[in-house]
Amino acid sequence: MAYATGAPKSLPDSILNISRYFMPTRRNLNNISRFINSQKADVIGLIEVDTGSYRSENVNQAARISKHLSNFHHSTTKYGDSLTGRVLPILSSQGNAVLTRDRESNSIYHYFPSGFKRLVIELDMGLYRFFLLHLALSKRVRQIQLNHIANLLHTNRNRPFIIGGDFNTFGGTREIESICQELNLINPNSNNMPTFPAWEPKHQIDFILCSKEVKIVNFTIPEVKLSDHLPVVLDFDI
Known about the structure:
Blueprint: H1 11-16, H2 26-39, E1 43-50, H3 61-69, E2 72-77, H4 83-87, E3 94-100, E4 106-111, E5 119-124, E6 129-134, H5 139-154, E7 161-166, H6 177-183, E8 185-186, E9 206-211, E10 215-220, E11 233-237
Helix pairs in contact: 2-3
């Protein structure tokens, strides 16, 4: 979601307009809310949400979207015990969020043992569990984080689960082959359609991975320019 700072038109535009990360975001957030509403989704994972800095008028963006959709949200900042992440302006408000129609859904916040962005949101949806990740830019750290998720899921395999988020796998899908084999995961993006950058997609770095019990009905990547990433949408049955 890029904190609702908008969608660059090109790499030069992304670099030259870096100031957008410090500008008010309400207009872009409204566009994102309208798109999400059009999808009629039961569960929505949002990567890079402002949880209440001056940039978002001191309002949690996830809460604002949730109110627009009449949904419920689970959100927190993504830096764990990092002192830098907790004290710097704007940075201390940057997080991830999951929205759901189900009031009864419960969330657990896990944290990776390494990396700057450490948050893993686990949502208990009753029939299945949903995990939202934002992996590190470092390939070495990403592998540590993926191993951590694999170990976490090995300890509790009593229900179907779905893992989604920004994996930052610029090395390609081979980076997730190990965890997919270990947990017997299905990648609904069978054609390896790219998701980044939104203005000229070349890399598949945003994933939804499903345990074998999840029945894939449809998978799409809508061509909407609301962020620097394209969204991924999955229809499924349990």
